[in-house]
Write a structure and sequence with these properties.
By secondary structure, the protein is mainly β. The chain has no helices and eleven strands. The strands form two sheets. Strands 2, 4, 5, 6, 9, 10 and 11 form a seven-stranded mixed sheet that branches. A four-stranded antiparallel sheet has the order 1-3-8-7, with no helix packed on it. A hairpin with a 6-residue loop joins strand 4 and strand 5. It is globular. It starts with a strand and ends with a strand.
Length: 131
């Protein structure tokens, strides 16, 4: 499995940006997908996660209402639409994948916010929020 993130860049405070992540490998539908970010001098932190179908999502409190995670299982991609960006959100954004075949019980996405839950990582894309 390989993940390739893209879409980062320079955006003004209050602006919007859309990140994408391309998944290469088999059985994309058996992975849940997430975004994390790492600001300079800080630890990597969870941003958002989406289930296999894209119907269920979970967000960090700091981004709720501003960020939207979606996935396209036909194209093997996951995206992160970000709006009302703040300078403190300048970071390298990473996409991540966790092997988790769908079972009879709903997945508890809120339990999948730690880095160790994920099997594969993309290389990251830089987002700089600055005027």
């Amino acid at each position: 499995v390989q993940l390739q993130a893209s879409g980062g860049g320079l955006v003004q405070p209050g602006g919007s940006l859309r990140l994408s992540c391309a998944f290469s490998g088999r059985s994309y539908g058996n992975y849940i997908m997430a975004w994390f970010r790492q600001a300079p001098g800080k630890e990597r932190e969870f941003v958002a996660v989406v289930d296999w179908s894209g119907s269920r999502t979970y967000y960090a409190d700091s981004v709720k209402g501003r960020f939207i995670i979606t996935r396209d299982n036909a194209k093997n991609t996951v995206s992160l639409q970000m709006k009302s960006l703040e300078s403190e959100e300048t970071a390298v954004y990473f996409c991540a994948a966790r092997w988790h075949p769908q079972g009879p019980s709903p997945i508890q996405l809120e339990l999948r916010t730690n880095q160790g839950s994920y099997d594969y990582w993309g290389q990251g894309t830089q987002v700089t929020v600055s005027s």
